Amino acid sequence: MKVLNKILNHTEEILVSSGILFAALLLFVNVVLRYIFKYGIVWAEELTRYIIVWVTFVGGAICVRRGSHLTVSILLEFVKGAKRKAIIIGAHLLTILFTLFLTIYGFELVSQAFVNGQVTPALQAPYYFIYLAIPIGGALMTLRLIQDIVSGLKDPENDESPSIEEVK
Known about the structure:
Elements: H1 2-37, H2 44-66, H3 74-78, H4 81-116, H5 127-131, H6 133-154
């Protein structure tokens, strides 16, 4: 299981980092072409937008794994022990409801785009591929939240917020 988790960690990070790098390079080249040759790459901005969408949703799973999402932790400052852990797990369960909503309705959006055969304006790429970032990101975040809950339950001595970053 640790090997699969390590592969998933590296895959997420490679996808996000290479996506950001490629989008930045593509935009840089497009700006240079516009200023020097007065002609840019027509599809560059559209592709960059779609890359950023993918980076956002896959990056959300990385943030869950690292415990980097924004939280309101004022209550946790005053609570210790089992109550603290219960609040953290309860918050994770609520977040899982949201990520499951993203996953389920994301797949519905993908299937509608697939059936309708919609394509993007400049790239002529199928929209379902871009929309696929939503359910994949939601499923990855759900998986990471479940891992976080399980790792927190395995260590009853740990009074801190459960985090699966150590599972790497």
